[in-house]
Design brief:
The chain has 380 residues and is of the alpha+beta class. It has seven helices and 25 strands. The strands form nine sheets. It has a six-stranded antiparallel beta barrel. A four-stranded antiparallel sheet has the order 2-11-13-12. A three-stranded mixed sheet has the order 16-15-25, covered by helices on one side. Keywords: Bacterial flagellum, Cell projection, Cilium, Flagellum, Periplasm, Signal.
């Protein structure tokens, strides 16, 4: 076999391998751009419910509320003791081992009686720490005023506070703690999911294109026109006959369907922390940018002036010496960002100007004011 033939075979093999890798990269990129329906939506009726309650924490090592200042703690403690048969109506009642707290929890969907949920306990009085405390029986109510769970148990905190007469050290937040599995569900929320005739799917990030893609993916899976997007945040699915009485099976079949998510062009700016998040679809028109700050630096260096040695005249004086430096950023140049640049090119262009996050915020707002930024700016 000739050397030329070997080279021809090698070239064809190399081209085949490169083409295979290119196809794999394209497939991988397409798959990476897709998300499951269950990850970008919420199904009707499958949701948490918020619970809240008021209670007392006991067993604190002198870090509880000041009974004299926290009237609600005093009255709550008296009420608890009286229900237990103890007469505590005494002006001399004084303890710093009790704290009034607010207790919050999330009731997961379809929680059954007897199941347990986690609690978050937060001090509302003058307590310095909840370390070592135990929450007394606390009813947890929903928005309708009904009691759905009852909590009790020892509190675990992540922070601590210690100090003396001259110094105090605090790490974390010692006035907030958690109780794992600290509440027992006493009331169930009635919702018969399997008997629904239609189900509404709510998008976590409303978008018309994404909603229509979800409806198309569901129709392709179920057949017919069972799903339709009613608005940017809602897709309504009519339960087909073969799923009647078994809506859960239908939701199981559609929640894993992959959908390519579309998002509007947006720039999110948090001016307090200087954080900037630029969406992938952000584009700008041709624009020229220059950035510079006038910096004036004044340095005071006082010097001591003394008379000559063995001199009978003259006094020691402090003479002011002031040095002023003016930096007009003359090395900063005008940069041109061409039309239709991508996110990476926008970032590279701004970094080329040598600007920090806070200057970038001003630049992006100025580009938007000039009408060259094809995106919305959201300020947090």
């Amino acid at each position: 076999m000739s050397r030329l033939h070997h080279l021809s075979v090698l070239a064809r093999t190399t081209a085949l391998v490169c083409g295979l890798f290119a196809c794999m990269a394209a497939i991988s990129g397409e798959a990476a751009a897709q998300s499951r329906i269950k990850d970008i939506t919420n199904f009707e009726g499958i949701r948490d419910n918020l619970l809240v309650g008021y209670g007392l924490v006991v067993g604190l090592n002198g870090t509880g509320d000041d009974i004299g200042d926290a009237v609600f703690t005093r009255e709550s403690l008296i009420g608890v003791l009286q229900r237990l048969g103890v007469n505590a109506r005494d002006d001399d009642l004084d303890t710093d081992n009790v704290a009034a707290v607010m207790v919050t929890a999330n009731l997961p969907p379809f929680s059954r009686q007897g199941s347990r949920i986690d609690l978050t306990v937060s001090a509302i009085g003058t307590s310095k720490s909840l370390q070592g405390g135990t929450l007394l029986v606390t009813p947890l109510m929903g928005a309708d005023g009904e009691v759905y769970a009852v909590g009790q148990g020892p509190i675990a905190i992540n922070g601590f506070s210690a100090g003396g007469n001259a110094e105090t050290i605090t790490r974390g937040v010692p006035t907030v703690g958690r109780i794992s599995n600290g509440a027992i569900v006493e009331r169930e929320i009635d919702f018969d999911l399997k008997e629904l005739q239609s189900v509404k799917i709510a998008l976590k990030n409303p978008d018309l294109t994404t909603a229509q893609r979800i409806a198309d993916a569901i129709n392709q899976q179920l057949g017919g026109n069972s799903a339709s997007s009613t608005d940017p945040s809602t897709v309504q699915v009519n339960v087909p006959d073969r799923y009647r009485g078994n809506t859960v099976a239908m939701l199981t079949d559609i929640e894993l369907l992959p959908v390519r998510v579309d998002s509007p062009a947006k720039v999110v700016i948090d001016e307090k922390s200087g954080v900037i998040v630029i969406g992938n679809e952000v584009r700008i028109s041709t624009v020229a940018i220059a950035q510079g700050n006038l910096t004036v630096k004044i340095t005071e260096t006082p010097q001591v002036s003394q008379p000559n040695a063995f001199s009978n005249t003259g006094n020691t004086e402090v003479v002011d010496r002031t040095q002023i430096e003016v930096d007009e950023d003359s090395d900063r140049r005008l940069a041109v960002l061409p039309s239709g640049v991508t996110l990476q090119e926008v970032v590279n262009g701004l970094n080329a100007l040598g600007v920090g996050p806070r200057d970038m915020i001003a630049i992006l707002q100025s580009i938007k004011a000039a009408g060259a930024l094809q995106a919305d700016i959201e300020l947090l």
